[in-house]
Specification:
The complex is a heterodimer of chains A (about 325) and B (about 280).
Chain A lengths: L2 H16 L6 E10 L2 E11 L4 E5 L6 H8 L7 E6 L2 E2 L9 E4 L11 H12 L5 H10 L15 H14 L4 E5 L7 H16 L3 E5 L3 H7 L2 E6 L2 E7 H5 L2 E8 L3 H10 L2 E4 L2 E5 L5 H14 L3 E9 L2 H16 L1
Parallel strand pairs in A: 3-8, 3-9, 6-7, 7-8
Antiparallel strand pairs in A: 1-2, 1-4, 4-5, 9-10, 11-13, 11-14, 12-13
Helix pairs in contact in A: 3-4, 3-5, 4-5, 9-10
Chain B lengths: L2 H18 L1 H27 L6 H41 L1 H6 L5 H35 L6 H23 L4 H28 L2 H13 L2 H12 L4 H5 L1 H6 L10 H24 L3
Helix pairs in contact in B: 1-5, 2-3, 2-5, 3-5, 3-6, 3-7, 5-6, 5-12, 6-7, 6-9, 6-12, 7-8
Classes of the chains: A alpha/beta (about 325), B mainly alpha (about 280).
Chain lengths: ~325, ~280
Amino acid sequence: MTAPVEADRRAAAQLVADMPPGPAAWCSGLRKRYGKQQAVSDVSFEVGRGEVVGLLGPNGAGKTSVIKMLLGLVHPDAGEVVLLGRPAADPAARARVGYLPELFRYQPWLSPVEVLALHVRLSGADVPTGEQSEALALVGLADRADDRLGGFSKGMQQRLGLAVALVARPELVVLDAPPSALDPLGRADVRDIVLSLRERGVAVLLNSHLIGEVERVCDRVVILDRGRVAAAGSLAELLGRHELHLHLTGLSPAAQARLAETGHVEREGDWFTVALPADDVDTAVPDLVGDLIALGARVHAVEPARISLEDRLLGILRDGAGARQ
Amino acid sequence: MTTTRTVLTIAALTLREASRQRVLLALTAMTVVLIALSGWGFSRLAAESGGTLTSGEALLTASILLNLVMFGFSLIAALGTAFLAGPTLAGETESGIALSVLARPIRRSAFLLGKWLGLVAFGSGFVVLAGLAQCLVVRATVGYWPPQPAAALALLAAQTTALLTLAVLLSTAVSPMASGVVAVGLFGTAWVAGVVGGIGASLGNASVERVGTVSRMLLPTDGLWRGAMHAFQDPTALLRLGDEGGQAFPFLSAAPPTPSYLAWAALWVAMVWGLAAASFVRKDL
């Protein structure tokens, strides 16, 4: 990375920081290398105020590294981060940020009440004890409030972690793999909590393997693969893409080429699945069918299909792997 | 969040951690056993030597025994604080406890300073309280009172501070257990080097004597410990043992620490702390 580029980036960061009111989180050109492993290369995205953004990707895609760089826990080799309108190099940028780490552990010699009091004090926020107790009640720990954490299960520690992330009146909440240790009931609670945060205008960055959860609560999704942003956009943008199932026989090479031209094709016997471009859905289907017939193919069936986020994610990751080979 | 408030919050948290861990229980138990044993020993000494020891011999014996027991305390403090410093820094970063704390709007250097202050308060508090109790026991049993008890206890606390600063530096780089083991190992090595140097001095061998001098510069725990011994022992004890024998004997000290040595020790602590902070601030968690 050359110095002028870095300087430009810093200038851009300052510009973003000065803009009213500025996104909840903004990062540009984040890079991180651990030894020989390039964990994150050139990641840029933003989380708008009051927006719920899902961070998706396979293991080792760099999701947790990116989150830690946003929070100043890992130092990026290059790139800039702005949190709630302040450059992240200033610790004060994190004053209104709540964080549930992927590795959630809290001081085993303290009780939940003491952990929350500690975090409120460190955040500098003025949160009365009544409100702190409410945060514990919200995650279902009200009756264990004064017990030492030493005897808590993983699920209960994660619930406490959620309360820690929420207690200091955050404007941005970063949840790294939140429902990992929670039972189905706990997951439903997390979903409700995230949705209520969005209602109150709190931005949420959610890293989760549970794609179903992400699809239920997120406004936008950023998909990371091997340290890069493989795709990003609103759910409508990412899932608005349609697929077409076609049952075809007598397919000439020219007709096959016409199919491939339209989009990504998968074949199972005589059934073909073609991804359609998002922009001209209205004309793409009749044009394609007409062309296939003109090229001598026999069309037995044409069925529209909508893809799930999971299929879309797998498709993006497969395309990425294909492009690398 | 002001830096001072962060430092004090973390220091209080570290003290609370120390007071709630089993290490406090173990420290208290060892200390009580050591004080009780030494109290019994001193009372036997007083009873059995009733008429046979001259008052000078009694002073010498009391000085040596007091220094010996104080060495026990400084060893307990060294073990206690070195094994507290490891878990509280390296252990917390390894287990993830530090993640949610350091994601708060606080500077890492303030966090480290708070941890260090808490450990210093705990370690110094321990040696001062245990040392004072021991002095009182000695006074009650054999009627000996050290010439400079305040300076002696302060130097013991300084020795503990130097060692735990080293343990803090080590725990920013290596695993919790390793940092404790290395710190205590270095502490023991410095003490042995000091004894070797003392023997060199009594034999008039300058190169052997240099071993002690150099090790006292590299790790000031032994120099501070010798200063503490000098303040605990009776001024006539050395004369009684003879100058050469006194230098070689590990539980009497020939001279008080010079002001320049004390300044060096303070600078050493500041430098090692600075290194620890530089290493911790750069660390990826």
